[in-house]
Amino acid sequence: MTIAAISAKGAWSLDAAHSDISFKVKHLVVATVTGKFNTFDGKIESINDDFSDAKISFTADVNSINTGAEQRDGHLKSDDFFNAEKFPKINFKSTSFIKISGNDFKLTGDLTIRDITKSIELNAEYGGIIVDPYGNTKAGFEIIGKISRKDFNLKWNLMTEAGGAVVSDEIKLHINSELLKSV
Fold this sequence. Notes:
Blueprint: E1 10-14, E2 20-27, E3 31-37, E4 40-46, E5 55-61, E6 65-66, H1 70-77, E7 89-101, E8 104-113, E9 116-131, E10 137-148, E11 167-181
């Protein structure tokens, strides 16, 4: 079976073992800190054979945040940032998924952090569909974009002596997703 002959139509779930949700933020203006969420879930319902107009949703568990520094992770879970105790989930629900050209899509949807919902746009690159050695149908997307942390009341901020922010407002998002088609 050729890759082109496999239809995207149907229900898909995120294969967490082969996916990741990560972010990058400037620290002290000169360096970048990378973090990720270790626990997340996602679903896609594809209406068309090529994923165009698919309905996408995902959830990330704030308590699973991991930047490689336990003290920083604890601060990110506090009320200065995510307030994981009161707002334990980050949610996304698509409002549109439009094929731009070739393998490039524009993903628009509602992102909710700390009970604040904002519409965001992300770029998605489709990697294709294939049947794995175990007979499972898999698809892949790489999704990137940027958000403002202040839009979601991730409010903590200090300034350096030179006037730069200790933590920048802009957060870069990067999602590598491998999807499993439901049977």
